[in-house]
């Protein structure tokens, strides 16, 4: 083992030069050697194969070494391989909340982007790490920064969630919306005729937070005391998530409304109602 370590530092001594021999210690896989290099005044912003010592310490999971390097002047936002140390620890391979907290407490950029335009928050959401998500949001992470595909953390997480089914009851009818995946944004509407007369449904509509997000002309008849489970399917805009406010605890409350226009015995009628619906996102 001693020969391997000696060989490691001999190679680095050649690469960095004799005067920078302590820099080699910062990239060792030996924890003690890294601390030795720091104590001997090695350059904490030197690079080897494109990475900084701080980046290397982060990927190794050495929290106290990370703290010591930052204290001694390491650049907390220096990029290696197209990502900052915070992006590294928020990613799938490290995924370490404690390391992220150390970096954030030392002013790491919580909205930094990697080569694909992804932020630490986007990566934390991909990993479903609720503690990491909360830490980032509590420290100013932006839910609506787009990556190179045009996706945002908010859009991604909402696209994976289903809006629950809802129904509203009036003296004439029951109107209901089936559960649907927000990423597909297609909702099926059902209507039950509670009267003893034929009902002609002419229009149905969906509202989120008071805004009309989709409507459909149907022109369908429903027999007395009967129901049509799917009287029409409404295509909603893919941007509907933008009106949803997401709290730092991962909850989003949406006011979900349905409206219908119909006729009974030639008399035009309408009905609408709404209720709050809560989504638990993480």
From TrEMBL:
PROSITE patterns: ANK_REP_REGION, ANK_REPEAT. The keyword Repeat applies. ANK repeats lie at residues 49-81, 81-115, 116-148. Keywords: ANK repeat, Repeat. This is Uncharacterized protein. The lineage of its organism: Bacteria, Pseudomonadati, Campylobacterota, Epsilonproteobacteria, Campylobacterales. It holds the Pfam family Ank_2. InterPro entries: Ankyrin_rpt (IPR002110), Ankyrin_rpt-contain_sf (IPR036770). It comes from the Bacteria.
């Amino acid at each position: 083992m001693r020969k391997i370590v000696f060989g490691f530092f001999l190679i680095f001594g050649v690469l960095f030069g004799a005067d920078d021999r302590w820099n080699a210690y910062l990239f060792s896989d030996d924890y003690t050697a890294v601390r030795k290099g720091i104590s001997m005044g090695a350059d904490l912003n030197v690079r080897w194969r494109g990475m900084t010592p701080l980046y290397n310490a982060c990927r190794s999971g050495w929290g106290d070494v990370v703290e010591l390097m930052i204290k001694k002047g390491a650049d907390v936002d220096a990029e290696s391989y197209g990502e900052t140390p915070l992006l590294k620890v928020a990613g799938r391979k490290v995924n370490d909340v404690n390391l992220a907290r150390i970096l954030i407490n030392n002013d790491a950029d919580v909205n930094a982007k990697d080569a694909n335009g992804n932020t630490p928050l986007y990566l934390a959401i991909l990993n479903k790490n609720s503690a990491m998500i909360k830490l980032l949001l509590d420290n100013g992470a932006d839910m609506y920064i787009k990556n190179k595909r045009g996706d945002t953390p908010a859009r991604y997480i909402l696209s994976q969630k289903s809006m629950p089914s809802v129904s509203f009851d009036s003296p004439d009818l029951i109107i209901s919306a089936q559960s649907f995946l927000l990423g597909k944004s297609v909702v099926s509407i059902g209507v039950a005729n509670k009267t003893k007369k034929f009902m002609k449904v002419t229009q149905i509509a969906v509202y989120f937070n008071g805004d009309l997000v989709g409507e459909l002309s149907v022109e369908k008849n429903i027999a007395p005391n009967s129901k049509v489970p799917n009287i029409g399917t409404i295509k909603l805009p893919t941007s509907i998530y933008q009106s949803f406010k997401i709290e730092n605890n991962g909850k989003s409350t949406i006011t979900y409304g349905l409206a219908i226009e119909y006729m009974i015995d030639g008399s035009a009628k309408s009905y609408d109602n709404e209720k709050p619906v809560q989504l638990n996102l993480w």
